[in-house]
Specification:
Layout lengths: L1 H8 L4 E5 L2 E5 L3 E5 L3 E5 L4 E5 L4 E6 L2 E5 L1
Antiparallel strand pairs: 1-2, 2-7, 3-4, 4-5, 6-7
Length: 68
Amino acid sequence: MKRIKSYLNDTDFKLNITNKIIHIDNIQSISKLEDNIISLNFEDFKLTIEGTNFTIKKLIEREILFTG
């Protein structure tokens, strides 16, 4: 149970990239969302990802999963 609570309360930035799929956790906000650029805000920094043909597969409160 401690591990589940720890996971749910985790605020660390997490980035997973596999086979053109990008999964990012613990986003504070999205500042730009286009088909070739995604800018995400976190507590201490901003992350901008550039590419082509981005497609959002999942977008929930603090999580995004996209391909491109």
